[in-house]
Amino acid sequence: MALLWLAVLLTSASGLPQSQEDHYSPIKNLRIEPVERRLTWDLHGNVSEIMCFINSKFITKAVNHNRYCQFHVLPSCEVKNFSISLTKGPPFLMGIQYPLHEGNPEAAARGLDCRVHDVDVLTCSWDVGREAPRDIQYHLYWQELRTRREYECPNYEMDPRGKLVRCHFNDVSRLPKHLQILVRGTSQSAWIPCSDRTVELSEIEILNPPNITATCNKSYLMMEWEACSHFNNRFEYELQLQKGSDPAYTEKLQEKFFELHNPKNYVVRLRAKGFYRKSWSEWSAPQSFECDLGEDSPRPDWLLAALVLLATLLVLGLVIALCGSVAENLPSHPAHERPHH
């Protein structure tokens, strides 16, 4: 059983051809085209369906009559194995590495992690590479996937050694929803590989706990809330409730409200997540509602005063209207004088 594995380092946009190739191979000159974000090759003869893999994980099938595989994004920093195989016929596997491996990977920023939080903020953090030179410094950029244009992060934070290890973007609504994050290292003594991560902002968002507002009396407790996000517009909620000293229980909801009848005293808290996401927000602070006090429909003093004033004005208006109606019905001719005797 023939198995062909060819590893090639790419040094240009189209890549160098493999140094070894089977003369009878139906596929030759496997290469990456970075601008088009393609893995492509020269096809000789008819072959079955071609499958494309990254680090041995199936990604997509070839298109345009088995001429290439199209990717949404290519790595900018981390070296990965790109390979192809056939669905039928003799076992066949061919691969290359991309991008070009340069510098000491242990000097690159490690543990790159990004989160959207507090509705508007994107924060990325990383650690200094284990074998980074003493004069190492890092800078973070976001990259447009289509144009590969890069923009540097404006708000850095340093660790105690003066190394940049965190950065914030304060208005995520101005960023593309899908982008690549890169951390580039610089040193006078060595070439430092970059680190990268492709992110979809909606997937890395941590929601703020929603604030609960409530109306409460002896008969019912009505709670409402609102989750805020630039990327998600459908949410799931978990509402935890505890009545008096009873054990707490949790309601799973998609609505933005919840009503309890004959509530008495409750302690509640709430958390949220995007409908198709995995990460929950923190729990909101516990809120207590004492609903067994006063009348069934208690209202604030100012509201009661306003209602009294409104009722008074309505009564006064009604009286004026009735008086006007009576006046209109009185005879309009003057009274006859008595004759003098």
From TrEMBL:
The chain crosses the membrane at residues 302-323. It is a single-pass type I membrane protein. One of its GO terms (cellular component) is external side of plasma membrane. InterPro entries: FN3_sf (IPR036116), Ig-like_fold (IPR013783), IL3Ra_N (IPR040907), Short_hematopoietin_rcpt_2_CS (IPR003532), TypeI_recpt_CBD (IPR015321). The keyword Zinc does not apply. It comes from the Eukaryota. Residues 1-15 form the signal peptide. It is found in: Cell membrane. GO terms for molecular function: interleukin-3 receptor activity. Residues 27-99 form the IL-3 receptor alpha chain N-terminal domain. Pfam families: IL3Ra_N, IL6Ra-bind. SUPFAM superfamilies: Fibronectin type III. Keywords: Cell membrane, Disulfide bond, Glycoprotein, Membrane, Receptor, Signal, Transmembrane, Transmembrane helix, Ubl conjugation. Coiled coil: none annotated. Belongs to the type I cytokine receptor family. Type 5 subfamily. Cell surface receptor for IL3 expressed on hematopoietic progenitor cells, monocytes and B-lymphocytes that controls the production and differentiation of hematopoietic progenitor cells into lineage-restricted cells. Ligand stimulation rapidly induces hetrodimerization with IL3RB, phosphorylation and enzyme activity of effector proteins such as JAK2 and PI3K that play a role in signaling cell proliferation and differentiation. Activation of JAK2 leads to STAT5-mediated transcriptional program. Interacts with IL3. Heterodimer of an alpha and a beta subunit. The beta subunit is common to the IL3, IL5 and GM-CSF receptors. This is Interleukin-3 receptor subunit alpha. The lineage of its organism: Eukaryota, Metazoa, Chordata, Craniata, Vertebrata.
